[in-house]
């Protein structure tokens, strides 16, 4: 078992990385054998050169050419002969990670590095850096696979840096690939030669391991995190996050040659306790056996990725990525390196117990007394150096990239009035027991400011209050004037919709001019909520005409005209899209058999439509009411059927828009004072293109009993879907029975199946509404039954078009084709045995229906 405490204060690999960074030469323990092999291989190659060698080189050349042609395509793989440079990147197959060259340190820095970052991160914050100790001085960096199969970074200086010096390839047949996990791997066939997860930087990703591997062998290695030197310099910094080999469940952070902070977790629960709010986001695993001992984790939440970063100041920070958004989700374990938290440990006792706390202060160190310009020093190094000298009262970074140190030795009171430039930060030693002089000076400083504040604040407050009051008064007057003009304009438009005189609303000449402009625009009046509310008696119960799935309908009186107000309920399945759809569709439709939209209201959360008032309400209120049904004699029913067909023909063929209603039913057929039908409720309507035959939706909405089978089951709809609904309405009109409520003592079939059985056995007259027992109408009744059964056939191609329906209704002597069985053969979804023998099948499946 390896022991961390038996080595120097830093893990051996970290020390090797400092003394021998990535170079073209392999490690010393491999160099001799490698050189010998290369020498032998060279002599053999010279002796055995033949025609086959030329053929092999020719093949390699062809592969190189083909690879170069594919470089422009986004890929996760780097092949021999390819290179990665400029702004080109490798992208993992899940498009989560990207690998390429980046520059850090702002505009003042020209150093470039090869790294991996999240593809969606606009800042390209790297999670792994290859050449931490050997940055490229300009943008000429190139990543490629060398002829011996190893990854190298080169630049215009022709200096090559090996990416995988500790794990070399054995032949030139290698490829490099960026995996979905964020690891960059070098492969020989299916075998992994090297991967970036073996040598992490400062970031602990899901699936990455920290610990010891290949224990008891010559290839033993350890994996750990090393912080950046500063937030803008990726070179190895002061802190290491690793696993302690002699204490199986202890995680340590090292600071070069002294332990700066220890984080212990006696068991898995203790480690989780340090993560606070992220308990549910991680599945942490600790593995220990004869060959390896490591700590790893995976995120337990599938819709996000979470990871840890060891910051240059020694803090462990957690981040999460949901979609394309990256955010910090957990505050560091220690808020600063001098924290007294139980989760933090300072190895050496404080040298200045009465003044050993540092606080972050905006500004740079004014007139520093001492400097340490070493490039490898970060802010945490500056802190340790200052804390060990009680005369040091402040410190900060020397350069803009966060490296180097500057110190201040002097009176802390100096900082009360001068802190240098404000775009930097420094840490100041803060003595809890401040001197009386310092307190008095601060008190005098703030008392002067307070005096000025007391004198000036009332005057400023008075002036601001006056300006706000004047502004509010002015805005209220303007808003009131605009509201008055808008109300007058919209009321005038409302009268124009009814063909009335504009002077009934307002005699103002300015208003008349507005009306003439709006009249040419054909705009819909947008009425105020107060206007609609007053017209309906504040939506009183006495004015309520009825209520459907969309919400209640009220009768109102506006400018001497009766109106019907449809107020969309907040609990309705019809939302803002359906509301807009109904307004846009019906506004462009003008036909005597379509209800007229007079205006709308979209104030606050209200969605209200104002229609022309139809005195006789809906068709179903007559058709299914035993007291009103007798008033619908046969000829009146035929006129209603023909009127609905004419309105439907206009929608499908002759209007400016080709409209599919999708919710045709008797409750959506309104009757005026002369019992003329008008199609209403276009909330579910869809507009078709000129050459469009059908469409499909994933959200099936409508009313059970009126929907065609292809729409109810598969979401397919067309003009033939409306024809099916029209056929159901025809059967309800001639029979006086409701399809969805139909039941017969001798049959289990619904209205469609019952009508089919009667027609099949020449007993169709039995379907006639008893209120229509008039022998003179039997011929027309049979024709209507025949047309209705043609409309409700199962397959859309078998149903007639709307124009065919109108022609058949007008031509009483036409020879009509025989209908096929309707789809709904029974309530339980099965056809009768006789129909099954005739080959009639019902493949209708269940579908979620949203009632309206």
From TrEMBL:
PROSITE patterns: BULB_LECTIN, PAN, PROTEIN_KINASE_DOM, PROTEIN_KINASE_ST. Residues 539-816 form the Protein kinase domain. SUPFAM superfamilies: alpha-D-mannose-specific plant lectins, Protein kinase-like (PK-like). Pfam families: B_lectin, PAN_2, PK_Tyr_Ser-Thr. The keyword Transmembrane helix applies. Residues 75-199 form the Bulb-type lectin domain. The chain crosses the membrane at residues 450-470. It comes from the Eukaryota. It is found in: Cell membrane. InterPro entries: Bulb-type_lectin_dom, Bulb-type_lectin_dom_sf, Kinase-like_dom_sf, Pan_app, Prot_kinase_dom, Ser-Thr/Tyr_kinase_cat_dom, Ser/Thr_kinase_AS, SRK-like_kinase. GO terms for molecular function: ATP binding; carbohydrate binding; protein serine/threonine kinase activity. Residues 15-37 are annotated as: Disordered. One of its GO terms (cellular component) is plasma membrane. It catalyses: L-threonyl-[protein] + ATP = O-phospho-L-threonyl-[protein] + ADP + H(+); L-seryl-[protein] + ATP = O-phospho-L-seryl-[protein] + ADP + H(+). Residues 352-431 form the Apple domain. It is a single-pass type I membrane protein. Its EC number is 2.7.11.1. Keywords: ATP-binding, Cell membrane, Disulfide bond, Glycoprotein, Kinase, Membrane, Nucleotide-binding, Serine/threonine-protein kinase, Signal, Transferase, Transmembrane, Transmembrane helix. Belongs to the protein kinase superfamily. Ser/Thr protein kinase family. This is Receptor-like serine/threonine-protein kinase. The lineage of its organism: Eukaryota, Viridiplantae, Streptophyta, Embryophyta, Tracheophyta. The gene is LOC115754922.
């Amino acid at each position: 078992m390896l022991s961390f405490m038996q080595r120097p204060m830093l893990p051996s690999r970290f020390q090797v990385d400092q003394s021998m960074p990535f170079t073209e030469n392999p490690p010393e323990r491999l160099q001799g054998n490698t050189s010998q092999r290369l020498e032998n291989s060279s002599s053999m190659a010279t002796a055995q050169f033949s025609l086959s060698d030329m053929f092999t080189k020719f093949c390699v050349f062809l592969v190189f050419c083909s690879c170069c042609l594919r470089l422009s395509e986004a890929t996760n793989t780097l092949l021999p002969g390819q290179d990665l440079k400029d702004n080109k990147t490798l992208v993992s197959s899940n498009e989560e990670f990207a690998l390429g060259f980046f520059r850090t340190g702002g505009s003042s820095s020209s150093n470039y590095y090869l790294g991996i970052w999240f593809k969606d991160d606009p800042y390209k914050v790297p999670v792994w850096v290859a050449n931490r100790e050997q940055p490229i001085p300009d943008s000429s960096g190139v990543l490629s696979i060398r002829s011996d199969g190893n990854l190298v970074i080169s630049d215009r200086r022709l200096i090559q840096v090996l990416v995988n010096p500790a794990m070399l390839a054995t032949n030139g047949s290698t490829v490099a690939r960026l995996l979905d996990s964020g690891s960059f791997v070098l492969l020989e066939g299916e075998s992994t030669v090297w991967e970036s997860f073996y040598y992490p930087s400062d970031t602990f990703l899901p699936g990455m391991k920290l610990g010891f591997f290949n224990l008891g062998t010559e290839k033993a290695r350890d994996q750990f995190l090393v912080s950046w030197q500063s937030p803008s310099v990726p070179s190895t910094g002061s802190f290491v996050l690793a696993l302690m080999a002699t204490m199986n469940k202890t995680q340590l952070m090292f600071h070069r040659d002294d332990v700066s902070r220890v984080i212990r977790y006696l068991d898995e629960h203790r480690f989780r306790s340090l993560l606070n709010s992220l308990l549910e986001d991680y599945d942490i695993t600790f593995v220990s056996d004869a060959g390896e001992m490591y700590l790893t984790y995976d995120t337990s939440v599938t819709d996000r990725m979470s990871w840890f970063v060891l910051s240059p100041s020694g803090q462990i920070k957690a981040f999460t990525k949901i979609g394309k958004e990256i955010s910090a989700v957990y505050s560091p374990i220690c808020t600063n390196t001098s924290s007294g938290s139980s989760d933090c440990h300072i190895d050496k006792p404080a040298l200045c117990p009465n003044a050993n706390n540092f606080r972050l202060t905006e500004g740079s160190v004014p007139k520093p007394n001492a400097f340490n310009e070493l490039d490898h020093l970060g802010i945490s190094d500056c802190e340790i150096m200052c804390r060990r000298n009680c005369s040091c009262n402040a410190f900060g970074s020397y350069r803009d990239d966060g490296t180097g140190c500057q110190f201040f030795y002097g009176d802390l009171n100096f900082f009360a009035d001068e802190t240098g430039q404000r775009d930097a930060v420094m840490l100041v030693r803060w003595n809890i027991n401040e001197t009386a002089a310092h307190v008095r000076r601060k008190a005098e400083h703030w008392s002067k400011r307070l005096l000025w504040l007391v004198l000036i604040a009332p005057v400023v407050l008075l002036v601001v209050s006056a300006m706000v009051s004047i502004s509010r008064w002015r805005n209220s007057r303007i808003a009131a004037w605009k509201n008055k003009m808008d109300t007058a304009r919209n009321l005038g438009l409302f009268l124009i919709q009814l063909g009335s005189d504009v002077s009934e609303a307002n005699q103002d000449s300015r208003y008349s001019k507005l009306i003439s402009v709006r009249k040419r625009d054909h705009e819909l009046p947008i009425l105020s909520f107060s206007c609609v509310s007053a017209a309906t008696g504040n939506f009183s119960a006495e004015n309520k005409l009825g209520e459907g799935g969309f919400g209640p309908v009220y009768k109102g009186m506006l400018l001497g005209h009766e109106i019907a107000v449809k107020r969309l309920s907040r609990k309705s399945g019809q939302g803002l899209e359906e509301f807009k759809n109904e307004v846009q569709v019906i506004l462009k439709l003008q036909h005597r058999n379509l209800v007229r939209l007079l205006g709308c209201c979209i104030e606050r959360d209200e969605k209200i439509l104002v229609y022309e008032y139809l005195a006789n309400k809906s068709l179903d209120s007559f058709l299914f009411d035993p007291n009103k049904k007798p008033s619908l004699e046969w000829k009146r029913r035929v006129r209603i059927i023909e009127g609905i067909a004419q309105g439907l023909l206009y929608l499908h063929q002759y209007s400016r828009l080709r409209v599919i209603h999708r919710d045709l039913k008797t409750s959506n057929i309104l009757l005026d004072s002369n019992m003329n039908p008008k199609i209403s409720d276009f909330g579910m309507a869809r507009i078709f293109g000129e050459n469009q035959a059908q469409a499909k939706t994933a959200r099936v909405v409508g009313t059970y009993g009126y929907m065609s089978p292809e729409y109810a089951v598969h979401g397919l709809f067309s003009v033939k879907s409306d024809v099916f609904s029209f056929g159901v309405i025809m059967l309800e009109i001639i029979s006086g029975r409701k399809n969805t409520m139909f039941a017969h003592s001798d049959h289990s079939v619904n209205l469609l199946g019952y009508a089919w059985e009667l027609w099949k056995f020449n007993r169709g007259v039995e379907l006639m509404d008893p209120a229509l027992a008039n022998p003179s109408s039997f011929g027309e009744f049979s024709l209507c039954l025949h047309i209705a059964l043609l409309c409700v056939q199962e397959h859309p191609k078998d149903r007639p078009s709307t124009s065919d329906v109108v022609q058949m209704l007008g031509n009483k002597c036409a020879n009509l084709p025989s209908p096929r069985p309707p789809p709904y053969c029974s309530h339980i979804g099965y056809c009768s045995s006789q129909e099954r023998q005739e080959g009639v099948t019902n493949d209708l499946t269940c579908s979620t229906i949203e009632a309206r």
